[in-house]
Design a protein that fits this description.
This protein is α/β, with parallel strands linked by helices. The chain folds into two domains: 94 residues, no CATH class; 251 residues, Metallo-beta-lactamase, Chain A. The chain has twelve helices and twelve strands. The strands form two sheets. The chain has a six-stranded mixed beta sheet with strand order 5-4-3-2-1-12. Strand 7 and strand 8 form a beta hairpin.
């Protein structure tokens, strides 16, 4: 509670200058500042200072209020501050935002390098739909990207950061061809390390990287054996999903040697002619006991998708993808009414939902 009072104290001080603050205001006509050329440099500098205050507050709150099911108001407020910073067009070009992302990633990498899982699974959220899941026997990456779609080289994860992430993983599953899910530099890193990369066949189809990629059959309920670098195996089902009509989308479900079943939906979305995908979605839990489901939070009727898988834990993703235009960067608060979603209903439901911020982790024990 002390942290919250400090935050509001900062806000109050910012507005307590009265007439003196108003008298000192001098708006520069036109723009020409950086990173937003429509604003003056003074305006840009203010937004940088504000971003730093907000994101420092986010980190302070998150350090006290870690991920939990049915999170409290304090943690929700931290995410609101994140929404405020990253729903500005040039957020990825602002130094405080870059430092926050790299700081969260550094925390994740160090945690990943030090974590040995003896029971259950540890789940890390990297960026967008990028997740890493570790059990006692395997570490699996899903839709791992560097954040390059944000358009800022200084926001994008470095070669060193990427190398350290890939070193910790055994296999990479990529759901579909869009750049905020399929990062060629990351995939090449896995392949060069002798680690399998699994994608739909339309991903990098005419690229030299294509022959080295594993293309499993997209057949509902067909269990396929995937062999890893050291002859360990995983049981994998690739459900034949879609992102509307723009891309075929692998919905991957993996069962580890410990019997933990993990599903990642990529950008699965059902509307119009793609409503037929619910024919297999509605049946999944009748055939499998799903432990962890990672769905994209902006999909239409996420509630029905979760009911179909009926998992022990839901870990949503795709919030604040900076490659999207501002209105289409799904905020943590949902924007359900405008986007016609039911994500907020899911979080209030009986299903255990843990919404992670970049760099955070959650321990799942069946």
């Amino acid at each position: 509670m002390k942290i919250i009072l400090c935050i509001f104290g900062l806000f109050f001080l910012g507005f307590s200058g009265g007439g003196r603050a108003i008298a000192q205001m001098a708006l520069t006509p036109g723009g020409g500042g950086l990173p937003d050329p429509q604003l003056s440099q003074k305006d840009n500098d203010y937004l940088d200072r504000q971003a730093k205050v907000f994101l420092d507050s986010v980190q302070a709150l998150l350090s006290v209020y870690p991920p939990v099911i049915h999170e409290g108001r304090e943690r929700s407020m931290a995410k609101l501050l994140m929404d405020a910073v990253f729903h500005e067009k040039y957020a990825a070009f602002r130094k405080p935002a870059q430092e926050f992302f790299h700081g969260q990633t550094d925390h994740l990498i160090r945690n990943l390098e030090q974590t040995i899982v003896k029971k259950g699974a540890m789940i890390w959220k990297v960026y967008n739909m990028g997740f890493i899941v570790r059990t006692k026997s395997v570490t699996i990456a899903f839709d791992l990207v560097r954040g390059a779609t944000a358009g800022s080289p200084d926001f994008t994860l470095t070669t060193e950061e990427t190398d350290r992430l890939v070193t910790q993983c055994d296999v990479l599953f990529i759901s579909h061809k869009h750049n905020d899910h399929a990062d060629k530099a990351v995939a090449e890193n896995f392949l060069n390390s002798g680690k399998p990369v699994i994608t739909p066949e339309e991903v990098w189809k005419n690229d030299p990287i294509f022959p080295g990629i594993t293309h499993l059959e997209r057949v509902s309920e067909k269990v396929q054996k995937l062999t890893l670098k050291d002859n360990r195996t995983l049981d994998v089902i690739i459900y034949p999903g879609h992102q509307l009509t723009s891309a075929i989308n692998n919905v991957s479900m993996i069962t580890t040697a410990e019997g933990i079943t993990i599903a990642h939906t990529g950008d699965q979305i059902n509307e119009g002619e793609m409503m037929g995908d619910f024919e297999w979605i509605d049946q999944v839990s009748k055939n499998h006991k799903v432990d962890i489901l990672m769905p994209n939070a902006w999909t239409t009727d996420i509630f029905r998708i979760v009911r179909g898988f009926n998992p022990a834990l839901v870990v949503p993703g795709h919030e604040i993808e900076l490659g999207h235009t501002v209105w289409d960067r799904l905020p943590f608060w949902g924007d359900d009414k405008y986007l016609e979603l039911n994500y907020a209903d899911l979080k209030r439901s009986k299903y255990p939902v843990v919404a992670l911020v970049w760099g955070e982790s959650y321990s799942f024990n069946p």
